[in-house]
Design brief:
Length: 205
């Protein structure tokens, strides 16, 4: 498989934990056998401070982000979304979806996508239906009360589902089998260690 690249949007107060599982599995490929290049994208090259206080130096300007050079755009939650911010990132998400490149959004980022019209015709989930309704969007009938939802090139999840977010995204990219992903959720979400042997087989496949 050719080298894959995932771009992750970063902005002040981005929620570290929401994308932590996904970034680790993409970058290491420990259960997929396919390491993915992870590139941090921001509106400037100045350091960004996460909600957990980590200072991260962006790799790429958002203005230079080309969907043709990417396999995935990841958008975490952050304070900006509820403060009517992040429009440049939702515009980028629109370009990715138009180009047929997956977009994975979690928590507040789903609010931004809803607010800017990207969830009006796509099945999705978030923290709660009422949360997205406050955006004034027209896609309420397509909301699913699920841990993660995949609709074509769009993956969405709520803030309490980082493991399912990772699993759904890895599945959409075709990086892991259904059996491996079920074992992954068993171990990392349900503390069911019966899935561990399956993950070890995947790690050494």
């Amino acid at each position: 498989m050719a080298n894959l690249t995932a771009h992750v949007g970063i902005y002040d107060t981005y929620a570290d934990w929401e994308i932590g599982h996904l970034l680790v599995e993409l970058r290491t490929g420990r259960f997929t056998g396919t390491p993915v290049d992870v590139v941090a994208v921001a509106e400037s090259l100045e350091p960004v401070t996460s909600m957990g206080g980590l200072r991260v130096l962006p790799d790429l300007l958002l203005a230079d982000l080309d969907p043709a050079a990417s396999n995935l755009l990841i958008l975490p939650g952050a304070g900006i979304w509820d403060a009517d911010g992040g429009h440049a990132f939702t515009a980028a998400a629109g370009r990715f979806l138009e180009a047929g490149v997956p977009v994975a959004a979690i928590c507040g980022a789903t609010f931004g996508l809803a607010r800017d019209g990207l969830l009006d015709k796509r099945r999705h989930t978030s923290a709660a239906a009422e949360y997205l309704a406050a955006s004034g969007y027209a896609g309420g009938d397509l909301y699913g009360d699920e841990r993660a939802v995949v609709d074509g090139d769009l993956i969405t999840a709520g803030p309490s589902s980082p493991v399912q977010f990772a699993s759904a995204t890895l599945g959409r990219l075709g990086l892991a089998s259904g059996e491996t992903l079920e074992a992954y959720e068993a171990v990392f979400d349900r503390e069911d260690l019966t899935g561990y042997p399956v993950l070890m087989l995947a790690a050494h496949a």
